[in-house]
Write a structure and sequence with these properties.
With 403 residues, this protein is of the alpha/beta class. It is built from 12 helices and 21 strands.
Length: 403
């Protein structure tokens, strides 16, 4: 075929649907699961939707993306929310982001946080360090680092934090002592509004419903239960675990690179780089009781609590009850599950020190062979679904009009 798409998650489904909308039907999507959606799949638990990949939703900030997706699930089928996220700090629920809401703490704690922010290296002119942990202290001060950022990141990404680079955090603004002091004095948040401040979530379904509808629009071009085993970059062929082989002019891969057991025609140094890529696995688990809180997200940095995040289902999914937790797989290994739980082997790509170099070379070289990496796993980037759809729409336009 002309186009072969690996993976029927948000990235692959977007490319497929844009191709079809432009009158191109010579394409095929291979998906290893029995249904589409990838990390954004949903299932029914206790009579209401449960998003197996964790807290996925549709951000409001990309009108072009939303207009495209509303073709499949009209806007009237969504509710729009102001996001209410909080952090458990010293036994209190403090609004996110922490630096803008220190005023919600006890006065004695506010003083300690203010002193810490004033002494942060970024505010005192100290040279920016390279190691991840040192950089967190330099950027945020000791109190935010010790009480929140260091323990939370250890729970989410693993204990070896210095394997991570700092390039993905450099866009964060410095924590302003002046703005933090003003917020404490006036008892309101100052500074830049956090990302995902407003979001859409379906009124009657889980987030996975959107992707099922997109898959249905290209159902004659999707094969399920196809586990990709290898890629031959010279012949542009893909082999699957059941022995089938597919050949295409252009291959768009949205699947994790470490999943490939066989790669042919790839330079050894690039292949070795794939072996260095790291990721974290996360278990989502359902709990049936309601929580007495108006918020939808709760971040839990305390090391003694196994999970790192709570999603309060009944506060964004109408008519439902209960909540679900997200826990790094290393923290639940060997433990008995208390209820419904789902393990996502590939949850978050880790931004390790050498990842930009590895992926830069891999993606550039792959394009010379008409094999294009796309999305969270094809690019090994921690993209949210709206970003993935935006990238996929742009790629589809590129391959339609420039190939």
């Amino acid at each position: 075929m002309k186009y072969l798409i690996l993976g029927a998650g948000p990235a692959g489904l977007t490319v497929a649907n844009v191709l079809k909308q432009n009158g191109i039907t010579d394409f095929l999507v291979l998906e290893k699961e029995s249904e589409a959606g990838g990390l954004c799949r949903s299932t029914d638990v206790d009579g209401s939707p449960f998003d197996i990949g964790g807290g996925h939703f549709l951000d409001v900030r990309r009108p072009k993306v939303n207009a495209f997706l509303f073709q499949f699930m009209p806007e009237e089928e969504w509710d729009r929310y102001d996001r209410d996220s909080r952090i458990i700090i010293n036994g209190r629920l403090v609004s996110h982001p922490i630096e803008a809401n220190i005023w919600q703490m006890e006065v004695e704690d506010q003083v300690e946080y203010l002193k810490s922010i004033a002494a942060a290296g970024c505010n005192t002119g100290k040279e920016m360090p390279e190691a991840f942990i040192d950089w967190i202290y330099w950027k945020l001060g000791t109190k935010i680092a010790d009480d929140y950022m260091i323990p939370y990141n250890r729970k989410m990404f693993g204990s070896e934090l210095n394997q991570l680079g700092t390039y993905w955090l450099e866009k964060l603004p410095n924590v302003s002592f002046e703005e933090t002091l003003l917020s404490c004095l006036t008892k309101k948040a100052y500074g830049r509004q956090p990302g995902h401040a407003q979001f859409y979530y379906p009124k009657k379904y889980g987030y996975g419903e959107l992707w099922l509808r997109m898959a249905d629009m290209v159902k004659d071009h999707v094969e399920y239960g196809k586990i990709v085993k290898g890629i031959d970059f010279e012949a542009r062929t893909v082999t699957t675990g059941d022995g089938d082989m597919y050949r295409a002019d252009t291959i768009v891969t949205t699947i994790p690179w470490p999943e490939l057991e066989e790669v042919f025609g790839m330079p050894e140094d690039i292949r070795a780089g794939i072996g260095e890529l790291k990721y974290s696995s996360v278990q989502t688990e359902y709990h049936g009781e309601n929580l007495e809180t108006p918020c939808q997200w709760i971040y839990c940095p305390a090391p003694e609590v196994p999970y790192h995040r709570i999603l309060v289902r009944h506060n964004f999914c109408p008519g439902s009850r209960g909540y679900w937790t997200e826990t790094n797989a290393s923290r639940v290994a060997g433990q008995e599950k208390s209820g419904y739980a789902y393990l996502n082997k590939y949850a978050y790509p880790l931004n390790t020190v050498r990842k930009p170099e590895i992926m830069g070379r891999l993606l550039a070289w792959g394009r010379t062979k008409n094999v294009i990496g796309l999305g969270r796993w094809g690019e090994h980037q921690h993209y949210n679904s709206d970003v993935v759809v935006d990238l996929a729409m742009n790629l589809a336009d590129e391959i339609i009009y420039h190939n």
